[in-house]
Amino acid sequence: VRVRVCVLKKSTKRTWCEWSSSNVCVANQPSLVQLKETASILNQATKDSLVILDELGRGTSTFDGYAIAYAVLSHLAEQLRCRAMFATHYHLLTDEFRRHPQIEVFRMGCVTDPTKRDVTFLYQLERGVCSKSYGMNVAAMAGLSETIVKAAEQKAQEYESSSWFGKLITRRGGTGSDLALFRELCSLSEKSPSKSTLQRIRRLTATAQD
């Protein structure tokens, strides 16, 4: 961590996810290790603790991961009410909590070069939500071929412009109706496909496409 000075209020306990390589390698999948460590943190933390969680919800489906991250962050903010640093890759989650009285939203600053697909992370904390992900930039920097990156970009654009989930992301403005719609669709998708459920999903999807 590149800092000159860091002042922290006295804490009873500092807890974080370690992602121990030994735990991951011994017959445990990463998502299980992460959730076990998260459970340990929540069981031990108090209002005077400092909790650090990074990318909670990876390793499972988008709906399950988002729901777990949402529930844990809600618990930290509304039940434990402790100090916490919660990093997430779910853009919609930042909309859920950007106006929460117990939460302040920050992003890590970066500079991009669209002509070369380069991205330089500045290691500077800035107020506000990150406007987009930089997966394509990182993919190109990692050495994936131009053909693969272009194909991925095209597929991402198609998905964002045509799917109801993509429309909710591109329309992100923190409106309660969009977020409530997303949660209801997630809930319905987990139920058995009865005729009434399918009709409800069609109506909600049509609403998302308006």
Topology:
Elements: E1 14-16, H1 21-25, H2 30-44, E2 50-54, H3 62-80, E3 83-87, H4 91-97, E4 106-113, E5 118-127, H5 135-142, H6 146-162, H7 164-170, H8 176-189, H9 195-209
Parallel strand pairs: 1-2, 2-3
Antiparallel strand pairs: 4-5
Describe the structure.
With 210 residues, this protein is α/β, with parallel strands linked by helices. Helices cover 51% and strands 15% of the residues. The chain has 9 helices and 5 strands, in the order βααβαβαββααααα. The chain has helices spanning 21-25, 30-44, 62-80, 91-97, 135-142, 146-162, 164-170, 176-189, 195-209; strands at residues 14-16, 50-54, 83-87, 106-113, 118-127. The chain has a 3-stranded parallel β-sheet, covered by helices on one side. Helix 6 crosses helix 7 (164-170) and helix 7 runs parallel beside helix 9 (195-209). The N and C termini lie far apart (45 Å). Residues 18-22 and 172-178 have low confidence and may be disordered.
